[in-house]
């Protein structure tokens, strides 16, 4: 065993926690960017075409639900 694993300070454990926290934040930011881009694309599409609002909300919901189902672990 290395000194970091046995000295009681949790040096190795701290790196694991840091990696876990970074991974979580990277996932959250990625999700925000993807969903944000979906909203922007739909908004611009519907503003330029004048399609019905109910279709906008339906596609918005279907897109977000599909993304969450696709990326679920």
Automatic annotation (TrEMBL):
Keywords: Membrane, Transmembrane, Transmembrane helix. The chain crosses the membrane at residues 28-48, 54-70. It holds the Pfam family DUF8119. Residues 25-71 form the DUF8119 domain. This is DUF8119 domain-containing protein.
């Amino acid at each position: 065993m290395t000194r970091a694993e046995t000295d009681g300070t949790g040096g190795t454990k701290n790196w694991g926690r840091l990696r876990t926290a970074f991974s979580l934040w990277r996932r959250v930011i990625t999700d925000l960017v993807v969903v944000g881009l979906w909203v922007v694309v739909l908004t611009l599409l519907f503003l330029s075409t004048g399609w019905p609002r109910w279709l906008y909300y339906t596609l918005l919901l279907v897109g977000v639900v599909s993304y969450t189902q696709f990326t679920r672990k």
